[in-house]
Design a protein that fits this description.
Layout: H1 5-29, H2 34-72, E1 79-83, E2 86-91, E3 94-97, H3 99-105, E4 115-117, E5 120-124, E6 131-133
Antiparallel strand pairs: 1-2, 2-3, 4-5, 5-6
Helix pairs in contact: 1-2
């Protein structure tokens, strides 16, 4: 995310100031005026502190711009969609997510891939260990007709 033009301008001015200050500092090394050298050294320290402050403001600015963008364009909220006999949460096309985990803890927990369980096809949440059946299989027992033998 780009920083504001004011922050960019401040960083450019600071960079130019540092370049000029380095030149002055190099020229002052040849001078015999120790007081001038001390003042230039103090000025150099102040500009470096200013540079640090501008960097902190730039980072804060970036963070605030990111927050603003998130508020202006919130992430999609989970929606409940029915799959077979079960309701799951989906975020756009991502999912399914465990409904109890989201409803209780506000966490989107992806469910394991669909597998066959004793009761039918379903998915399991590895966090709350619940199994959600998308269809139910009914077991039909084959019963032979009763043959009591020959009735006479």
């Amino acid at each position: 995310m780009p920083v504001t033009s004011a922050t960019t301008a401040a960083a450019q001015i600071l960079s130019s100031t540092l370049a000029v200050l380095k030149t002055v500092r190099e020229r002052a090394k040849a001078s015999k005026d120790s007081e001038l050298k001390g003042q230039i050294s103090d000025l150099y320290d102040c500009v470096l502190s200013l540079k640090e402050a501008v960097m902190l403001v730039t980072d804060e600015n970036r963070e605030l711009l990111t927050r603003i963008a998130a508020l202006e364009h919130p992430a999609s909220k989970p929606e409940i969609k029915q799959v077979g006999f079960t309701n799951y949460y989906f975020v756009d096309e991502k999912g399914p997510f465990c409904q109890p985990c989201y409803d209780v803890n506000g966490k989107l927990i992806p469910l394991a891939p669909q597998v066959r369980y004793a009761g039918g096809l379903g998915r399991k949440c590895e966090v709350c260990n619940k199994v959600f059946f998308e269809n139910h299989e009914t077991v039909q027992a084959h019963v032979e007709p009763y043959d009591s033998g020959v009735w006479s």
